[in-house]
Design a protein that fits this description.
Helix content of chain A: over 70%
Number of strands of chain B: 16
Largest sheet of chain B: 9 strands, mixed
Largest sheet of chain A: 2 strands, antiparallel
Strand order of the largest sheet of chain A: 1-4
Oligomer: heterotrimer
Shape of chain B: globular
Strand content of chain B: 15-25%
Order of helices and strands of chain B: HEHEHEHHEEHEHEHEHEHEHHHEEEEEE
Strand content of chain A: under 5%
Chains: A mainly alpha (302), B alpha/beta (434), C mainly alpha (340)
Structural class of chain A: mainly alpha
Number of helices of chain A: 11
Radius of gyration of chain B: 23 Å
Number of helices of chain B: 13
Order of helices and strands of chain A: HHHHEEEHHHHEHHH
Chain lengths: 302, 434, 340
Amino acid sequence: MMQLINTILIGVTSGAIYSLMAIAMVLVWRSTRVINFAQAGMALLSTYIGYELIQLTGSYWIALPLAMLAGALISALIELLFMRALLKHTSQGPIASVAPIIATLGLLGVIRAMIGFIWGNQDLILRGPLSNVGYTIGSTTLVFSPLKLFIITWVVAVMVGLTLLFQRTNLGLSLRASAHSPEISRLAGVRVDFIRTIGWALAGAAGAAAGMLQTPNGIGSIFPDSLEFSLLLVFGFIAAVIGGLDSLVGAVIGGLILGLVVAFVLTYVGGSLVFMIAFALLIIVLIVRPQGIIGVKAGRRA
Amino acid sequence: MNGMNRRRFLATCAVVACANLVVALVPAQATPLSMQAGVTKTEIRLGMTSPHTGAASPGYNKIPGAIKTYFDYVNANGGINGRKLTLLAEDDQYVPTQAVAKTNKLILQDRVFALVGTLGTANNLAIAAAVNPGRRGVPVLFVATGFSGFSVKKNFPTTFAMLPSYIMEAKIMAAYIRDNFAGKKLGLLYQDDDFGSDALVGFKQAGLNFDVSIAYASGAQGVSGVPATWITRLQSAGAEVVVLFGVSSATGAALATAAAMKYGPQWILGSVGGDATTLKAIGVPVGVLNNAVSSSFLPSTTDTADEYVKFFQDIYLKAHPTQTFDNNVLVGMNTAFLTAQAIKAAGKNPTRKSLIRAIQTRGSTFAGAGLTPLNFSTTSHVGYNGFWFGKYTVTGDLKPTGGVYTMYTTDSGNGAIVKSTYVRPAMPAKGLPN
Amino acid sequence: MHKAQKKQKKQKKQSNHIVLFIFFAFAIFLLSNRVDEFRVYQGASVAMFVVAIASIILLTGYSGQVSLGHGALLAIGGYSAALTRNYLDAPVWICFAVAILVTAAFGAALGTAAARLSGPYLAGTTLALAVGLPSIANQFSVLGGEQGLVFYVGFPPMRLGEDFTQYKWFFWIAASTALISMWWLQNILRSRYGRTWRAVRANEVAAELAGIKIGRSKVLAFTLSAGLAGLAGALLAMTISHVFPSAFPLTLSFLLLTGAVLSGITTLGGVIIGAVALVAIPQIADAIAIGLGNSENVVANLPGFLVSALLILTVLFVPNGPVEQMRAKRDHKIAHSRKL
């Protein structure tokens, strides 16, 4: 019984973190039809900035929103200065499907190298603001701690914030409209280019949050070639694809499914094939629904 | 073929030909043939490949710097017979194809005298087979892997091991567990590759069975939520003594997660992932190490009463004031220390043959920080062959059981485990090869 | 034009190609005698990359499907070749053939699933495959775990002489394999299938209306591309004499994609450029890093920075590759001069 509860808790917490990364991937995909592999690097850079802010202010609580802001700025700048030119150049032919992938991979390499130049190839320790020691019920300890509670709350807050933004504001309407049909939106007077930048900025903030939250929940350190961040990207992307790439709700559902399936298989079946589990899950979902769980057929483009 | 197509095709051909020409015209470094490759009047050039970048690089990326630091120290004190030792360290990102490509460059283009401290099992296997230093006669000194195969002289005629093998470690650990924790429920976490399977071989040979054993894929420790599943399984199986036979990042993730779940069995950490300084550097709160058992073949890195540790630490921290002195650094510096002695022992004008000969005939007498003898001979390329056990204090110092290093030695086969009576020779004056 | 004339012309075209390829082969093999062993080894790697990049160009450039998991296909080819060699003691060319067939069969299965998926979904699936597949090797002892399997192609035949090095033998095998596959691929691309792919690439809807079965055409491209990838995997295994799970990391899949973009994703003609770049650029970057580096941080990270920056500049300024760029420039010039 205890093991079952703990497994669910593990799945939900890690699922929440995959979801954040998936949300970042979905936001970028919706606004520019780009799979952003640099998201891992951008999240890492934001987390490094968060680390510096913690050193400076002594407070994780101040650093977290500022790191998200930094993530948003970095992301917006990349879109403005680089992706915009790139997408104009390469909008036609087979290169259109590959160029953004290559470009974001290149960006990932550049960002990682710059982190290495500035902070060096060594681990930096980033501690969370809350204890990660689990709550105790009777004599047993849950895999659920104040830190994990905070992570889930924060993910929910980001989700609610984004939903409100998308559903209740004019900006949100423009975001949805230009994701759905950029040309018509342009004709209707939406500043599509500006809206795209906003999409990237939101993604940058979500990615930064994922980095700032996972680091203290994980082993607690950052490194230019961080394995944790690379895998966060891979699992976030898989979660986004499972969910259907066009949908924020799908990203969260995809993240939770992935988190729970991985936790249950590793706990009850065992084995070391965590990466094959992710692949098998993806294949099964896509065989049943080629457009992902929430994806819309009409949304299949590019 | 119409004119356009033909022209296009010819153009392609021309490009190909040019590309090949460019490749062909880049001059190879000319070395006078009379000299031994990599040895000049003023320099002895050595090469190594290891991960400087990439996911496997944390910790290991300090080894080239550690080797260079000791070489610089030797060079500042006159070198070896007037020759400076230089190390060309190449980044292989822990990928065998890269290791082979870079080793080819080192041997064929840079014409290094020997390879030193090459890291990783797969990488070393690929280098041995594809570059074949054995056939080329290039010595491979003190490979940084505990895979027992490399000390088999028949297969790797020019390769010398330094680290005791994973099999030796598991055998000795099994004996330690039987002596100290008989009747307890045993758990094991191991990496699901050669590193872990060698350990399984050792445990099996020693007849030790685990009540619960968990394999993890290399890299899986970085996936959010995975370490927690290990701990819930160990916990619900009721394991009282748990062996962590993994790399530092997996060991650290397991320890940190267990602490968060208030699960505190008696930990036994393998020597690869059990170094407190490395664990601290990657973020493991040092308190969770308290009372954990670990083992090493070198003295504890915090034991500054040990003359080697003190000496290595002094020169390393002088050259790298912002770094920490950890087990990777100690292993690297000891590798450099043995290398310098081997080159000195190879004579006034060392050749690759005389270098190999020197290690085979005199290697067992080399000084070094290791607490067991080196087992080099004309028939054996085994380096150190034993371990001592100790417990971590609350500050992360590994203190040997009973206050003194008690060494147990064995082999990678079914040989017995023996309490060693070996007395380590004193460090040569000023830490220079004599 | 009469049918007979047409046929004659076609035959002439084919034979022209063969002559060119033979001329080509001759030039390369002559070169291999003039350069040192290290360059010969690099030549073998270049030949391996030629096959691997051609596989990506066929899939992405011609059939419009994106694979982020080609490294996994190379792994399947490498392991098939090694298993065939070790257990059946088969001659090398049979190992290569098995590598092609097994990987193509896997590619056909994956391609059937893939044909239903649009771009990013396929990218995600293949990415997950690239991350997951290598870890399988640790599950079955027949695959040798992290220590992998040995794949020796054997020593060069004695009649080639005493001085004929192992690497030159690697190079001869790899280069002739690469030449034959390029010749074959060139012919496929000029055949009915090639035209079909180009039609689908240009306009999926129009092609469908013209009676092309898009799904089948995509599966065929995936199958052939996988076969080439399998062959490249066997060549890769040859150059390191082993197969290991760690020899096929995710970065390999990305590297091949990079090579395809440097080559020009829509033309087979530039494939050698991409292949040479993949081998030469890291070495040049290393040399620059060592030349410029004054601190460990710089020396360690500069190569990665340079390679990535070059990648960005390429997609920004020469997105379709140097060959296509030159052609576009020339076409522009011709159009311009005609106007005058």
